[in-house]
């Protein structure tokens, strides 16, 4: 089971994204081929979602696999985000 600290860390990470990168993040969650075996989140569930709604949707959809999915999405958005991304630094080590 995912720890509660994950939820806060994910929210903090999404709040650090620019609006453009947050939009890309939500778009990649809708792309099944990027998620490699995990279900895509329907566009209707993310279209008007703010960062809190997006965290809830990720946890509801992916549950124990949320970390794997988030890392796939950040890889897809842009690798230059990785060095300063707290979430990825903690969960990849």
TrEMBL record:
Membrane-spanning segments: none
PROSITE patterns: DAPIN
Name of the molecule in the record: Pyrin domain-containing protein
Organism: Sphaeramia orbicularis
Ranges of residues in domain Pyrin: 2-93
InterPro entries: DAPIN, DEATH-like_dom_sf
């Amino acid at each position: 089971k995912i720890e509660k600290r994950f939820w806060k860390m994910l929210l903090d990470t999404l709040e650090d994204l620019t609006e453009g990168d947050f939009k890309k993040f939500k778009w990649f969650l809708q792309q099944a081929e990027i998620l490699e075996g995990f279900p895509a989140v329907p566009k209707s569930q993310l279209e008007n979602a703010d960062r809190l709604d997006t965290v809830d949707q990720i946890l509801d959809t992916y549950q124990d696999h949320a970390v794997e999915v988030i890392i796939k999405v950040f890889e897809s958005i842009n690798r230059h985000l990785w060095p300063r991304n707290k979430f990825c630094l903690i969960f990849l080590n």
